[in-house]
Here is the input.
Amino acid sequence: MMKIQELADKMGLTIHTIRFYEKEGLLDDRHVRRESNNYRNYSEEAVERLKLIKKFQSIGCSLAELKEVLQEHDANARTNQQIIDWIQAKKKEIESKKEEYDQMLDTLNKMLEYRTLLMDDPQTAQEMLKTWHAGSSV
Here is the structure.
């Protein structure tokens, strides 16, 4: 068992974050116990739970998704095929976001190129602007 500061240091989290997870129900009485003096004591299971939370956050899970995934994990509610399907859906979601970000970066690069050219070679910058599709604002 360990105190909250020890757990926070061990996991690279803040005390505030751990308390938030507890308040949201991501940590329960398997992970934290209150002593008679009302101090929290955290088990090794809390360390494993926080590792799991960090793993799912690192793949872009929202708080709602995290809650659902952890509930199903605790209940052993999904088959391996259902987990595979979930992973594939999550991959598609992230690939779609990546495409959106790539398009944003392309636009920003064109805007930057135009603005830089505007200082050095205004005529070429104007020609570049004409080749862009109508409606783009830089």
